[in-house]
Amino acid sequence: MKFTFTSWRILSSIILLFSAFLIVNGQPKEDPKQLEKEISKAGNNTQKVELLIRLSDYYLTKEGEIKSDIDKANQLRQEGQKLSNSLGYKLGTGKLMLLEAQITREKGDSKTAQKKTNEALSYAIKNNLSVLPDIYRELCAYEGYEEEDFRKKIKYLELAVPLYKKYKFFKKEGDALKDLGDYYSIIGENQKSLELLENAVNIYKSIGFKELQGVYTLMSGNYGILQNAQMSLQYALLAEKTAEYVDDKSYQWCTIYNHLGLAYYDVLKYTQAFANFEKSLDLAVKYKNISDINVLTYNLASLYCQQKNYRAALRTLKRTEKTYPPTDELTKVRQLFMFTICYSLLKQPHKAEPYYQELLKKYKESEVGLYYKLNGIIIYLQNSGHAEETYAYLEKFKEFAKKSNQLILYSQIELLTYQSDHANKKYESAIKHLKQHQIFRDSLFNMEKLKHSEALELQFETEKKDKNIKLLTHQRKLQEAKIQNEKVIRYVFIGSILVLLLFAALLYNRSRLKSNANKKLESKRKQIDEQNEQLKKLLSEKEWLLKEIHHRVKNNLQIVISLLNTQSAYLDNEDALLAIQNSQHRMHAMSLIHQKLYQSDNLSTIDMSWYIYELIAYIKECYSSEKKIQFTMDTEKVFLDVAQAVPMGLIVNEAINNTVKYAFPDDRKGEVKVSFKSVENDSYELIISDNGIGLPKDFNIDETESLGMNLMRGLTDQLDGIFSLENEDGLTIKITFKKNIEMETSK
Questions:
Q1: At what angle do helices 407-423 and 6-24 cross, to 10 degrees?
Q2: How many CB atoms lie within 10 A of CB 383?
Q3: What is the dihedral sign for C-alpha 706, 710, 713, 719?
Q4: CA dist., res. 479 & res. 485, Å (int)
Q5: Distance between CA 718 and CA 707 in Å, rounded?
């Protein structure tokens, strides 16, 4: 019995990130004594108003919830308000109106605070004040934590960001983009979230802001949800490195350790995952953050469950169950769910039943934590001998999945349906659902599940063959009875017409000869049919094996790329990093071929127009933040076999990479044209040209030590082609080679 960890990862990331950022972002960095000195020296002018606002904000956002700090903040605000009104300083008045709303919210009166924020909004819009984007950000604080609430927050921030940019408040623009990325991640738009977070990083770097660990942690979480384990680990490690570099002493380490644990889990490094979860939990306990304690306890227990160590998962849950009981409904549901499945999968339904009953009760009361309720109920019923009762809950699960439309939910439904069908001995249906689950989880290819599917399929085929054998035996007996009846009739006929004995003998002899001929023909027909079936089976197996080989080769190349990517995080040598990057690009060029062959019904040829487009798109993505290069592609739909496609792909990879790196120095704009077409005499022509700086005038291709240039020439020789360069108004590389005739004849 199995279940997935990925969906738990999503919720764990969101909950922990939320609590951590609320704590970290609230820590002020002003020096109150210095501000007080400046206020005492300032006259009754707008400068003094701004200083009073800064000091008031310091006491408002100071760590801890001390009443005297809030009172001090309000006193300074009132002083500033009085002076601003006397000066007619509209910007100061707008800022102080916002500050009053924030102080009111901090006191716990959210309703009045929201009203004051809207008053500040109207005043700022009317007077066109630069405090307007800050007010939009404040409005986010009055929304809840449902998806609709987060979408409202997104609308406020999308109004704030361009205003921050307009007024050149770069730090606040970066903060707003970070929050916006966080909210998009929560509603499941992770790619959009990554784009916003990249923009935030660029802004922070442009102003020299170095405390980027929070943004990197968010990016790690997004990549993890998108199942890009390598990038998730890369940004989690970058968050850790950045936090150490800036000497971060805050609670944000709790979030960093959690994401490191999740990222290490995704690359199957369970020891490191456990270690980081434990460190994160220690911090949560130190700060007595009950919600994070419950999230991390759940993460550890989930990881134990994934390794089928359910007893260790139970020990982990019981460690914090009494000391830090969950306070919110969702966490209570998750805890009940975990106890239910642990006892169920340990085949202890009597211990699981109390938790199951409570889970069932909550299921009937509300839809909070519906994913966990449905999973827990179904797994309990499957393991307690009531698998036939699971189908109604599976239908509810499908309705829930349609609303959220997340692939991981469909994958989980197919897996649970397979388990129910298997428990009910519906093997044919079980095979179908298991295969569908494997399709959903192809990126996390699991050989164990494939073997289980094959074993189940074998079991089903065996039963089917047993039925066929029984049917054939029955048909044989009928045939024997029929033959016996024919003999009796023949002998009666011979005995009854003695006069026609000679004619009957001749007729009988003729009948026997014909019968023997028919039997021989029937025997040969059966042999031919059997051979045809065997050939079909062998052909099918061959195609499956070829696809499997391409899939494995693609996966192995991706693993090597990932290993090189991970290794590059620990290298400082630019030549080594460049060599690793070049190797990754070459391996990706080959990986694309095997990926296309695996996904295609045609296992022998590659559509090079698609391949060149995908390869250039990948290279553009690799250099998107550095180069301003326009690519123009003019390619025909040409199909090449693997023997020609691989060297061809490597040539394109080398040429484009060299062009991007060297043709346009100093961030110059430029254009690269790629043409690949059929020409006369059954030949193909590849032309890659650019309007860059070209090669040095004294460049000699026969004396060059460039690996890329030599590699392209060598690969052209492998294609039996002609390689030429034209160094005028940029560089043009032309390669002409013949069509593979063997491929044509093999078709």
A1: 140
A2: 22
A3: negative
A4: 10
A5: 16
Phi and psi (nearest 5°) for 571?
-105, 145
430-481 residue pLDDT tens:
899 888 888 877 644 443 333 333 343 344 345 445 556 766 777 777 777 7
CB neighbour burial string for 86-111, b if at least 16 within 10 angstroms, e if fewer: eeebbbbbbbbbbbbbbbbbbeeeee
| Res. 402: pLDDT tops 80 | yes
pLDDT tens for 62-91 read: 876 688 889 999 999 999 999 999 999 999
Is 254:280 a contact under the CB 8 Å cutoff? yes
576 pLDDT exceeds 80?
A: no
Rg (CA), the chain: 36
- C-alpha span between 305 and 265 (Å, rounded): 13
For every residue of 568-608, DSSP letters joined together read HTT---HHHHHHHHHHHHHHHHHHHHHHHHHHSS-SSEEEH
Instruction: For 311-339, give one letter per residue: b (16+ CB within 10 A) or e.
Output: ebbbebbeebeeebebeeebbbbbbbbbb
Contact 39, 48 (CB under 8 A): yes
Contact 159, 133 (CB under 8 A): yes
Domains with residue ranges and CATH for the chain = 352-456 (no CATH), 619-746 (3.30.565.10)
In this predicted model, what pLDDT tens digit does every residue of 299-343 receive, in sequence order? 888 888 888 899 989 988 888 888 888 888 888 888 899 999 999
**Tokens representing residue 627 in the block:** 């180069």
Pairing of the two strands 731-738 and 669-679: unpaired
Residue 745 has pLDDT above 50, yes or no: no
Per the CB < 8 A criterion, the answer to whether 569 and 237 are in contact is yes
Contacts of 728 (CB under 8 A, 6+ apart): 694
Q: What is the DSSP string of 667-719?
A: T-EEEEEEEEEEETTTEEEEEEEE-S--S-TT--TTT---HHHHHHHHHHHHT
CA nearest to 564, candidates 595, 587, 594, 589: 587
Degrees to nearest 5, angle at CA 625 with 687 and 260: 125
The tokens describing 684, both together, are 């193909």
Sign of the CA dihedral 272, 275, 276, 277? positive
Report helix angle 501-568 to 229-245, nearest 10: 10
Strand partners, 737: 684
Tokens of 733: 């590389």
Place of tokens 């916002």: 98
Percent of the chain whose pLDDT exceeds 70: 83
Is residue 369 over pLDDT 70? yes
Per-residue HEC secondary structure of 428-494 comes to HHHHHHHHHHHHHCHHHCCHHHHHHHHHHHHHHHHHHHHHHHHHHHHHHHHHHHHHHHHHHHHHHHH
**Half-sphere exposure of residue 31: CA atoms within 13 angstroms, side-chain side:** 4
Give the C-alpha separation, 100 to 116, whole Å: 7
Distance CA 721, CA 711 (A): 14
CA distances 35 to 70, 96, 169, 401, 642, Å, are 17, 17, 21, 55, 71
Handedness of CA 353, 357, 362, 364 (dihedral sign): positive
- Is residue 734 classed as helix, strand or coil in its secondary structure? strand
